[in-house]
Amino acid sequence: MADTAFLSDADFELYKTLIYNESGILFTATNRSILEQRLRDILRENKMAHVRDYYAKALRDREELKRLLTMVTTNLTRFFRNQPHFDAFEKFVIPETLNIKKPTGNYTIKIWSAGCSTGEEPYTIAMLLAEILPSPWKYDIIASDLSLKCLMTAKEGFYDGARVVGVPDNYLKKYFDVVQGGYKVKNELKSHVRFDYHNLKNDAGMRGIDICFCRNVLIYFDQETQTNIVNKFYDSMNEKSFLYIGHSESLFGMNTKFAFLKTEWTTLYKKG
Ligand SMILES: C[S@@+](CC[C@H](N)C(=O)[O-])C[C@H]1O[C@@H](n2cnc3c(N)ncnc32)[C@H](O)[C@@H]1O
């Protein structure tokens, strides 16, 4: 039940509109309690009593607004999340991409992990590419998110024992250093991944992407925002490139030019 003493319906509307306009993330009656809880945490951190005061602060100060958006995002992720996606990556998407790119003479595969959270997704991709790419192929991964907090964790590349469950033992040995309290991604692997702040509501100006991962992100947006974001991906991708979205997400009924692709392991989307 909504706590209207803390967040009145009018204040909920204010926050809802601000967050939606700035990030595309949609709060409704169903997830209103999540917003309430996050606002309680923010107010405590800011030593403020009333949601209106914080709202005014977020409007005045762009950096505070970024912090608000960071606080309201949902960042659940894990290494090798949805293994069939990575089976298709290894056995189909990468071999296809090599065939497509070879005649161009460009031997660098460019991947975008959009909504990368704390880095598990781009590091999973990096480990797989380090394993399977034959010489002289190279790879660059651009990993972006709206959450500054997540990006800091991702850049640091430190994960405690519970978070590396799912990383095969041989990969753990090869691509992580054992450090106090957990594991840290080795610098060599990190050097292939560039983390950037990027709000998917805006155009990243990205071009030449061969494979785009935007998994478990679209789910937070309404259909209009989803369509805009997916069309921006389309513009940033090369001909005959691949798009992954989340296992429970779909482009069905959306006005996009991507073609649906069914592989032996999973479904994904293709440009051209
Ligand atoms: C549930 S996580 C998904 C992480 C990863 N892709 C995966 O599937 O495991 C969703 C991520 O999307 C990010 N996000 C939400 N809205 C965004 C926006 N407008 N621009 C960029 N990232 C956004 C959140 O900060 C969060 O880290």
- What structural category characterises the helix and strand content? alpha/beta
Mean pLDDT: 96
Q: What distance separates the N and C termini?
A: 47 Å
Task: Please state how the strands of the largest beta sheet are arranged side by side.
Answer: 6-2-1-7-8-10-9
Task: Report the helical percentage.
Answer: 40-55%
**Coarse shape:** globular
> Would you give the CATH topology of the largest domain?
Rossmann fold
Number of strands: 10
**Radius of gyration from the alpha-carbon trace, in angstroms:** 20 Å
Name of the level-1 CATH class of the largest domain: Alpha Beta
Describe this structure in words.
The structure is a single chain. This protein is an alpha/beta fold. The protein has 2 domains: 9-72, Chemotaxis Receptor Methyltransferase Cher, domain 1 (Orthogonal Bundle), CATH 1.10.155; 83-270, 3-Layer(aba) Sandwich (Rossmann fold), CATH 3.40.50.150. The protein contains 10 helices and 10 strands. The chain has a 7-stranded mixed β-sheet with strand order 6-2-1-7-8-10-9. It has a 3-stranded antiparallel β-sheet with strand order 3-5-4. Helix 3 packs across helix 4 (62-72). The protein is globular. The mean pLDDT is 96. The site of S-adenosylmethionine has 24 residues, from loops.
